[in-house]
Amino acid sequence: MGDEKKPKPSGVWPTIKPFVNGGTAGMLATCVIQPIDMIKVRIQLGQGSAGEVTKTMLKNEGMGAFYKGLSAGLLRQATYTTARLGSFRILTAKAIEANDGKPLPLYQKALCGLTAGAIGACVGSPADLALIRMQADATLPAAQRRNYTNAFHALYRIVADEGVLALWKGAGPTVVRAMALNMGMLASYDQSVEFFKDNLGFGEATTILGASSVSGFFAAACSLPFDYVKTQIQKMQPDALGKYPYTGSMDCAMKTLKAGGPFKFYTGFPVYCVRIAPHVMMTWIFLNQIQKVEKSFGL
């Protein structure tokens, strides 16, 4: 890393840099958020307040309990966040070039975010499936457990038992949700940085903090309706005649809209925001720090 002799990095590095940075930032954010997420799950399962849960976990299971399923979480960031943040930077760079170097209008940033989200979700879908399978495994009866040792073992077993295409099971709703989330997260971050810096004259630290908060909020706001529909579809039960309440995502969305109006999709928004926003914020803050360190090394 310390070859300061090179005046300008050439070759492969400039191309892969946004991908490496994005993935690293996402993985670091996961290391910070994972224990909080673990505590949140236990609180939702009714094991007491945050303080009580933390004390019980430390006493009974030790420090490692906070990082259960971390390998799958990190693999997901290494694939999904690497792909979405990297491709977003590449797409926006190309669009700015086509725009004669002028800042992009919001709708173009949103389009880049949508595309980056779709690319990221397609790349990250297998890791996502492994993560869900690993988390659900513990809740199954002993005889039915798949007993994956780690994320890679899970992926290997899924391919061996169910074929390669099984890795993209249920990827449709995941891709749509990722497109919405990344459109909100990526476009609003760039737009906010421009606004805070140029219009309000904020300093660097305040700009990053402000923009990452706005970005976290919009990531949650854009993706919750899709998340709501996805959850409804996943947990629907057939009635006495064996008929399901919804035929698919679109049907679920239309019926929800009819029954409860647009705000029905935002049921539980504060909780969802607390779940999504911190990871988005940490990712941007880490990404900024990584870029600073690279600059100091002349990378």
From TrEMBL:
Keywords in alphabetical order: Membrane, Mitochondrion, Mitochondrion inner membrane, Repeat, Transmembrane, Transmembrane helix, Transport
Solcar repeats: 13-94, 104-195, 203-293
Location of this chain's protein in the cell: Mitochondrion inner membrane
Entry's Gene Ontology cellular component terms: mitochondrial inner membrane
Gene3D superfamilies per the UniProt record, alphabetical: Mitochondrial carrier domain (1.50.40.10)
Residues of the signal peptide: none
Cited Pfam families: Mito_carr
Topology within the bilayer: Multi-pass membrane protein
GO molecular function terms attached to this record: transmembrane transporter activity
Main location: mitochondrion
Family to which the UniProt record says this protein belongs: Belongs to the mitochondrial carrier (TC 2.A.29) family.
PANTHER family linked: MITOCHONDRIAL DICARBOXYLATE CARRIER-RELATED (PTHR45618)
Protein name in the entry: Mitochondrial dicarboxylate/tricarboxylate transporter DTC
Organism: Vitis rotundifolia
Lineage: Eukaryota, Viridiplantae, Streptophyta, Embryophyta, Tracheophyta
